[in-house]
Write a structure and sequence with these properties.
about 190 residues; Arp2/3 complex 21 kDa subunit ARPC3; 7 helices; 2 strands; disordered N terminus
Length: about 190
Amino acid sequence: MAGVESPRKSRVGMSARDMAQIAVFAALIAALGLPGAITVGFSGVPITVQTLGVILAGAVLGARKGTAAVVVFLALTIIGLPLLSGGRTGLTALAGPSVGYLIGWIPAALFIGLCTARILPKYPIVLGLVVNAVGGILILYVLGTVGLLLRTDLDFRHAITTNFAFIPGDLLKVVVATVVAKGVHRAYPGLIRA
């Protein structure tokens, strides 16, 4: 159409704006690792703020861009950048007990993004809380438990109960992410396409 410019898209079908948003959220996840980590209990799995960035990536950017931001971040850690909390690299984390949680970031962001697209444009707080809790807690805990079973000597019961120490902090992250996502979608409607 004459007079209407469309944003230039790369070969993968993403505009420069899309790629900038992905880079910003990958950087956000990295920045949320700066406060460090607290290891609780005997599992060796640290409590970090980085999962907040994962939840926000899915809830703000949607499935495609949010998942891409998480994948970019993880790729940077796997090639050796110490971006995980505590200055760890992806290779260190993949060899340790937190492997399931780390890998779980990808399906968590994907799930949150897909479900968020369905509750827009209104983004009701209650539904946002449910979506972010299922993706940011349930999916992560399931995959994290599998990782614990594979990388530690914990039995099934102890692997599951290890997650209990994370619940209060993760609930807080879900609430913060939901409030932020609600504000972003109110200010920038159409950020996630159905």
